[in-house]
Design brief:
The protein has 452 residues and is of the alpha/beta class. Among the domains are: 205 residues, Rossmann fold (3-Layer(aba) Sandwich), CATH 3.40.50.300; 63 residues, Alpha-Beta Plaits (2-Layer Sandwich). The chain is built from 14 helices and 15 strands. The protein has a 6-stranded mixed beta sheet, with helices on both faces. Helix 3 crosses helix 4.
Length: 452
């Protein structure tokens, strides 16, 4: 018996888990199918069960984990295809490949010959694997899993991309293995195969357990039988079937799918009315899974998130209506135009008050009162006359202003700064300064140190 509890696997933080708390049992004497679409977590579950990947949860084989088994190859046979069409090196022969595996696990070499007979590969035992078909590769891989004569088999999509003949052989072999007391856990993608092969069906979707039910209940709840009919007069036949209470839907260009009426009744009805039929076959279709809907919101990063209310908010219906948003379809949701923001009118700019000095200059002079003598207005200083340029080789007088050039400070590494050109040393003579006022009479007159 295989007991699996709480299998959880997260490959990258921030992404949905590949498996989330998956638990189930696999009983001996039964074929259990692990059903799921692509990337549902089937292969990940098998790899976690035999500890080929790290994760959470535990799997017990007869009360022990896979690592605690003394001879795991004699207790559990594993077949993981993982997209590899070849069972071994293409240059090896089938018998040599099985004998190599038998020696690695300590099994006698004659066990390889027995399994070649059991898997119907004895006729190609000396052929190289490069010449094998996909069905022959899959049989050889199954023979390798059976080398230790295990009590349980874990098979990952063993019949995928095989011919109907090979699929039928695999189903017959696995059922006979289970009847003999073995435990079989096989993964599959098609509900039809699960209904034909398994005694119990475990359905997973996105790493979560959806259903665990016997095959009879699985056929009743998940599978829908119907009859496929094709011919040139399907419109007339559909009207006749609808009158008898059958459910008819269009199937392809020249076909219909009928449910509620058997294939025999449809054939007799078409014969009585002279309707020609090209095809009349039973088939089974899968009903889609029903999942409970949860409110989904777009987050700031563009991903979807679920809303969780505070316990106090859950007791108030008004807060729930305000905080709990409606579901949003991120694919069909169109982004609304933002509402225009109200813009306040610009305030009128006011002139800054003038500076007190500027106000005193621009203020009008007070008019004199009668009998009062107005104060004398000081006369403007006369415009200075430019002094004559000094003769070459003479220094300017003390009354003339001399502008000395700015030189860089002396550095012992760079040496003295280069002297300025003679024309830049003496500035052009400036006009004579106005007579100093009373407040500037105490200041000394600048002199040129070179004239002393």
């Amino acid at each position: 018996m295989i007991q699996t509890t709480g299998l959880t696997k997260v490959y990258r933080r921030g992404r949905p888990p590949a498996l989330l708390d998956l638990s189930f049992d696999t009983r001996p004497g039964m074929v259990t199918a692990l059903l799921g679409a692509e990337e549902a977590g089937k292969t990940t579950a098998l790899r976690l069960m035999v500890e080929l990947e790290r994760g959470q949860g535990i799997t017990l084989f007869g009360g022990r984990t896979y690592r605690r088994l003394r001879r795991p190859e004699r207790d559990v046979g594993v077949l993981l295809t993982e997209g590899r069409p070849s069972a071994g090196h293409p240059g090896r022969r089938a018998r040599g490949h099985l004998r190599m595996l038998a020696g690695a696990i300590g099994v006698p070499a004659r066990r390889a010959d027995e399994l070649l007979e059991q898997t119907r590969l004895a006729g190609v035992a000396e052929h190289r694997l490069r010449s094998f078909s996909p069905g022959m590769h899959r049989r050889l891989a199954l023979a390798g899993a059976l080398l230790g004569d295990p009590h349980a088999l874990l098979l990952d999509c063993p019949t995928e991309e095989l011919s109907p003949r090979n699929v039928e052989w695999f189903h017959s072999f696995l059922r006979s293995f289970a009847v003999s007391g073995g435990t079989v856990l096989v993964t599959t993608r098609t509900p039809q195969e699960a209904s034909l092969l398994a005694d119990r069906v475990i359905t997973i979707d996105h790493g979560r357990l959806v259903a665990d039910q016997p095959v009879t209940e699985f056929r009743r709840t998940r599978l829908h039988p119907e009859v496929a009919v094709r011919g040139p007069q399907m419109a007339r036949l559909a009207d006749l079937l609808t009158e008898q209470g059958a459910q008819v839907r269009r199937d392809g260009a020249v076909g219909i799918a009928v449910s509620g009426v058997g294939r025999t009744e449809i054939g007799e009805l078409a014969y009585r009315h002279g309707i020609l039929l090209h095809e009349l076959a039973d088939r089974v279709v899968e009903q889609p899974l029903t999942r409970p809907s949860r409110p989904v919101l777009p987050t700031a990063s563009g991903r979807s998130g679920h809303v969780q209310l505070h316990p106090q908010a859950q007791s108030h219906p008004e807060l729930q209506s305000q905080l709990q948003p409606h579901p949003v379809d991120l694919l069909s949701h169109q982004q609304e135009q933002p509402h225009p923001l109200p813009v306040a009118p610009l305030a009128t700019l006011q002139a800054a008050p003038p500076h007190p000095t500027q106000a005193a200059r621009t203020a009008p002079a007070p008019s004199p009162t009668p009998g009062q003598v107005p104060a004398p207005t000081p006369a403007a200083p006369p415009a200075p006359t430019p002094a004559p340029a000094p003769a070459s080789g003479q220094f300017p007088s003390a009354a003339e202003t001399v502008v000395l050039p700015r030189t860089a400070p002396y550095s012992p590494l760079a040496g003295p700064a280069p002297a300025a050109a003679p024309s830049a040393q003496l500035a052009a003579p400036t006009p004579a300064a106005a007579p100093a006022g009373p407040a500037e009479a105490h200041l000394p007159t600048p002199t040129d140190p070179r004239s002393e």
